[in-house]
């Protein structure tokens, strides 16, 4: 490897493939390496079904579950917000031409032992069983305020200073109760905990607008999911990188980041060193530069029926807010099915996930498992979560964080965009992206 690269990217998880594509499009010379012989890393899609059974040492896959090749099981499934940052990235980079998406049919929230459809517009708010009549009216006014709010137009502020007024003060302004705050903050604004309530409300309002705007785009829910599973996403960005001159090398013997003193030299594999100006990688390639921040449990469940009380939806998301089950972290349930070409006919894949808080993680998510009805098979993983110790500016090694428990891609994209901004010195510019229905 006599060539010198602007960047060597290690790992083919979605984050690394997105960054590889972005760096290649921006004119940088990129070499992308992975120790595995497949794309996706820990976020890979598994096919056929027997490979999933083998991975979890579960014996032979039942013949009753149809053809093994009909299954594409994501190890870390997440949905895309229709107006979210990942869709912007897909359109900006042209990766949409490689993919086909289907709308997720329903978004739900858990309250008082039952699941309820999440209201995100005035009509749904008035018909929702989540709130009483007077609370519905107050919530409708709150939604209308958020949708009309603009930092550039003081007439829309109604006495709210987005940089000073906290989210809790905004709830108080509209006299919204704790239950409404629970589903608004966690199932609409998609916050991971309640810390946002004490922060300025500008970001909170934008998150509510994002959910409502995403919902308005397709109507059933704000979420999208690619046909044939998420494994198509990293491969789409890999193809993009290759078009712009990126080089891919899979099945490389343990790549090792090497330094000359404090100066980054490159990446060594098979006795050769690929010299480079920077390295982008997931935590597994630079464990000495990361710290453990917790654990996440994910349980993949095969069902032969839709999740009960979701209107027989072929796909859905359920968020169980922390306060509803006396926890510090929300519990997420995502469900896709044969309608997305990820399961055999009439079968469903549901995944339950949350951040671990006790020494019995599976018991922590029992409330979510109980919502699923009869389960044909479960596949349980408990994974460590890692974050980089520093931002990489000094040693030129830029490391992504582990995938969290959320069932959507917003936190994933925030991590990617943060790394890109550190590398490039300025934020990624979405203002030049023109979205049309032809892009999706």
TrEMBL record:
Keyword Cytoplasm among record annotations: yes
UniProt-annotated location(s): Cytoplasm
GO biological process, one term: vesicle-mediated transport
Domain of life the protein comes from: Eukaryota
Keywords: Cytoplasm, GTPase activation
Cellular compartments per GO CC: cytoplasm
GO terms assigned for molecular function: GTPase activator activity; Rab GDP-dissociation inhibitor activity
InterPro entries xrefs: FAD/NAD-bd_sf, GDP_dissociation_inhibitor, RabGDI
Pfam families: GDI
Family: Belongs to the Rab GDI family.
Function: Regulates the GDP/GTP exchange reaction of most RAB proteins by inhibiting the dissociation of GDP from them, and the subsequent binding of GTP.
Protein name: Rab GDP dissociation inhibitor
Organism (species): Potamilus streckersoni
């Amino acid at each position: 490897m006599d060539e010198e690269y602007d960047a060597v990217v290690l790992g083919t998880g979605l984050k690394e493939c997105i960054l590889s594509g972005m760096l290649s499009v921006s004119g940088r010379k990129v070499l992308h390496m992975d120790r595995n012989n497949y794309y996706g890393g820990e976020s890979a899609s598994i096919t056929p079904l027997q490979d999933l059974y083998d991975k979890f040492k579960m014996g032979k896959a039942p013949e009753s579950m149809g053809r093994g090749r009909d299954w594409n099981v994501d190890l870390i499934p997440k949905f895309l917000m229709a107006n979210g940052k990942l869709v912007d990235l897909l359109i900006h980079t042209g990766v949409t031409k490689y993919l086909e998406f289907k709308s997720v049919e329903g978004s739900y929230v858990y309250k008082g032992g039952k699941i309820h459809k999440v209201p995100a517009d005035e009509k749904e708010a008035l018909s929702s069983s989540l709130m009483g009549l007077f609370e519905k009216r107050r919530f409708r006014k709150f939604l209308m305020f958020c949708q009309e709010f603009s930092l550039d137009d003081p007439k829309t502020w109604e006495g709210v200073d987005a940089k000073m007024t906290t989210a809790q003060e905004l709830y108080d302004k509209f006299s919204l109760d704790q239950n409404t705050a629970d589903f608004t903050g966690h199932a609409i604004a998609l916050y991971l905990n309640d810390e946002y309530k004490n922060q300025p409300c500008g970001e909170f309002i934008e998150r509510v607008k994002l959910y409502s705007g995403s919902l308005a785009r397709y109507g059933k829910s704000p979420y999208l999911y690619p046909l044939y599973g998420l494994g198509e996403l990293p491969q789409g960005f890999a193809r993009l990188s290759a078009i712009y001159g990126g080089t891919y090398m899979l099945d490389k013997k343990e790549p090792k980041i090497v330094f000359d003193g404090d100066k980054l030299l490159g990446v060594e594999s098979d006795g050769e060193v690929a010299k480079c100006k920077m390295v982008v990688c997931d935590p597994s390639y630079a464990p000495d530069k990361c710290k453990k921040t917790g654990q996440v449990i994910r349980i993949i469940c095969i069902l032969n029926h839709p999740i009960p009380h979701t209107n027989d939806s072929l796909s859905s998301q359920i968020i169980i807010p922390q306060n509803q089950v006396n926890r510090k972290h929300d519990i997420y349930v995502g469900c896709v099915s044969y309608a997305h070409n990820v399961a055999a006919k009439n079968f469903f894949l549901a995944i339950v996930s949350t951040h671990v808080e006790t020494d019995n993680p599976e018991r922590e998510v029992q409330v979510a498992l109980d919502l699923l009805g009869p389960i044909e098979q479960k596949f349980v993983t408990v994974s460590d979560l890692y974050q980089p110790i520093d931002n990489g500016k000094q040693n030129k090694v830029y490391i992504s964080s582990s995938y969290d428990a959320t069932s959507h891609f917003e936190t994933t994209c925030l991590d990617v965009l943060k790394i890109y901004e550190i590398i490039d010195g300025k934020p990624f510019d979405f203002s030049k992206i023109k979205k049309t229905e032809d892009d999706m």
